[in-house]
């Protein structure tokens, strides 16, 4: 177990380094000069002297290899750099925005599991029935509807017409816990609708496969109650593939919540990344992508360990 963990940590470190290197060099292929963008006002091109002075201040006039070496040294010290836009530490902006995105991620994941897993099991044990067909229709609609469409419809129905919840915004949890959770509910639900459909389909497929296994027939032959067989043997052994798909979806959501954050005016990490790209803020883009990549890799490692714990047939290698 320890050897497997150390091996995965070494691979994870190499992956983060590769991502950092790729992001650093790819950003230099993006059209536009950060110094010129920062100095431009009202569409008027700034003087050449001012642009050169800004490039010198930002260190952009140095050779790319020199900038790359300085970048790696900063990362080794845990320094994500300073924003070109407001000279603030990039780490401070990430620390402020990341918890809000993690709230969306964890909240929507919990809702998705609570919705998708029972529905998937129900669809499997009622295979071919009206319930199964209705749930298949739900999954198809939920997967085909873009998340920003779902979010917009939820704002229109629940916020503007019914006036049950606010349309969007953000209030710190420490300032008003009840309103914070209320504002968090709709964006989490907007993500969970499609996410739960993915879990439901995977759970249904896996449970159907487990129901055909020999050990299930043996358990029935022994006279075990159907409920016991379902919970103790079928559902438990179905959790491995479901855990894998949950982990993959969580990783994808880390950088993919930008539309939800925009619709519900939720100040998270994805919105910060979009603003950083628009302003050519290289250090901020690099820092955010690194944090998202590291979290994705951590989630993948956690999923692998969880899968092994759920399925004793999995061997560490």
Describe the protein.
- The protein is mostly helical and 317 residues long.
- Helix content is 75%, strand content 0%.
- The chain has 13 helices and no strands.
- The longest helix has 36 residues, at 90-125.
- The N and C termini lie close together (9 Å).
- The mean pLDDT is 84.
Brief overview, please?
The chain is mostly helical. The protein has helices spanning 2-27, 34-39, 48-58, 64-76, 90-125, 130-144, 147-161, 177-211, 214-221, 226-254, 258-263, 269-278, 282-310. It has 13 helices and no strands.
Question: Main attributes?
Answer:
317 residues, mainly alpha, 13 helices
The first-to-last residue Cα distance is 9 Å
Write the element-wise H/E pattern from the N-terminal end onward.
HHHHHHHHHHHHH
**Strand portion, in percent?**
under 5%
State the total count of DSSP E strands.
0
Give the quaternary arrangement of the chains. single chain
List the topology elements.
Layout: H1 2-27, H2 34-39, H3 48-58, H4 64-76, H5 90-125, H6 130-144, H7 147-161, H8 177-211, H9 214-221, H10 226-254, H11 258-263, H12 269-278, H13 282-310
Helix pairs in contact: 1-13, 5-6, 5-8, 5-10, 5-13, 6-8, 7-8, 8-10, 9-10, 10-13, 12-13
